[in-house]
Amino acid sequence: MQGAFICKNDLPSDWAEGQFAGRIQSDAGPSPIIIADGVVYDMSPVVPTVSMMLDRLPVDVGQGRRLGPLDAIDLLLLSPVDLQCIKACGVTFALSAIERVIEESARGDAGIAASIRGRLEDKVGASIRAVVPGSPEAAALKAALIDDGLWSQYLEVAIGPDAEVFTKAPVLATVGSGADIGIRSDSTWNNPEPEIVLIVNSRGSPVGATLGNDVNLRDFEGRSALLLGKAKDNNASCAIGPVIRLFDARFTMDDVRSAKVELVVEGLDGYRLEGTSSMAQISRDPLELVSQTLSEHQYPDGFALFLGTLFAPIQDRDEPGRGFTHKVGDRVSISTRRLGRLVNHVVTSRDAAPWTSGLGAFMHNLASRGLLTGTAGTVLA
């Protein structure tokens, strides 16, 4: 399991006032924690998993094991989710829809993307920003684009009635803040995707939010949408963290809707890329995306839902017109004022630490600690 020692500098400035949930790696194994009023509590004596803990909110931290003030202890922080399914929504912003169409039209070739970009933005830029997905106006725009030969499957999910919802990573396969994040070794055009991630419990209720990096391989997905699995799900390709900020009177869904997600990429070659994704420009409300995820499926352990990003980097890194792509060693920092900062370093998925602790190992660890038999006051059903 990859993680880093918890650092208050990676938490929001009001970390001592909010309530946060997460996971730490203890000597005995992974344990759910609550941070309340600046104090960290190990909740494994009460509930064995983060998934179950979020179903029981609000939890009584007095029943947990007090570890101490956050700024006075060293804790190895893991990705804050465990049994939750990892879902993601794509093309939820108008500008990202345009970039996806460019990928598709360029067939994954960054070299010809720039010429397509100008033509497409001239045709649909203003229209696609103003249209409401699934509306009569969206249907009319679709018809016009079909007539112009510019229609795309990406525009279908951008302005049509159905959002794109896919599975990003297997359960327990995410990495936390401070860990390496993986890019396929055979990808030559890729980028980070800085996003807000909603955390939804087993009853379908959003209980909090965190940050995520939905790493994207533009060359793979651009060649064919059927390569989405290879483009999205690779070793260490999904980062979540640093912790889940729980919704309360100080932090609500409106804070998610108004958030500005900042991205900084710093390369060993001296390259620096900065960008911002404004959630105010999202085409579908976060609650609609939750509803569409739940429409024909149940999630008995809850799910984490990436909400998509406005940001698609086109700034040249090496050759003019070739755009941006990652290099090994890049430091990727994703941050918002209310959720803190998620930091990862880029390696290839082949070189990232292998994912070896799956559900079987996790259940065995919990059982060996007596957390599944009632000795900790909990029975996993």
From TrEMBL:
Q: Which InterPro entries match?
A: FAH, Fumarylacetoacetase-like_C, Fumarylacetoacetase_C_sf
Q: Which top-rank group of organisms is this from?
A: Bacteria
Its transmembrane ranges are: none
Recite the UniProt keywords alphabetically: Hydrolase, Metal-binding
| Gene Ontology MF annotations | hydrolase activity; metal ion binding
Q: State a single Pfam family of this protein.
A: FAA_hydrolase
* Domain Fumarylacetoacetase-like C-terminal residues, every copy: 162-347
Q: Note whether DNA-binding occurs among the keywords.
A: no
This one is known as Fumarylacetoacetate hydrolase
Its source organism is Sphingobium algorifonticola
